[in-house]
Amino acid sequence: MQRDKGLRYSAMVRRGLLGLVLLGCGSAVAQEYRDRGVPLVISSDAHSRQAVEVLRWGVMVGRRAWLQPADVLNTRPFD
Fold first, then answer.
1. Residue 38's closest CA among 7, 23, 16?
2. DSSP state of 73
3. Do residues 25 and 41 touch, judged by C-beta distance below 8 A?
4. In a structure prediction context, what are the per-residue pLDDT tens digits for the chain, which is 79 residues long?
5. Whose CA is closest to 59, among 31, 37, 29, 27?
6. What are the Cα distances from residue 6, in Å, to 36, 48, 52, 63, 74?
7. What was the pLDDT predicted at 68?
């Protein structure tokens, strides 16, 4: 079952279809996905200004996972 899941993720990554929201996962999962080449995104899914404050939790997950800015899509230039 885990192997099938890994194959599905790999196929999605190759097609550029998968991004991971760091807020909803742990650092071990973020490291695993980074190692597989999964594009990572830190997002709050905020619908209000106050909800944007939860972004710090996503940043903390990324730090615990030893992610570099190049590993996180929304640290890259827009163009």
1. 16
2. G
3. no
4. 455 656 666 666 666 555 666 667 788 888 888 888 887 888 776 777 877 777 888 888 889 999 999 998 888 887 7
5. 27
6. 9, 35, 31, 24, 24
7. 93
DSSP state of 74: G
Structure tokens at 59: 């940043």
User: Which residue type does 70 have?
Assistant: A
Task: Report the C-alpha gap between 25 and 39 in whole angstroms.
Answer: 14
pLDDT score of 48: 79
Q: Which of 73, 10, 13 has the alpha carbon at shortest distance from 42?
A: 73
Q: How far apart are CA 71 and CA 75, in angstroms?
A: 8
H-run or E-run covering 33: helix 27-36
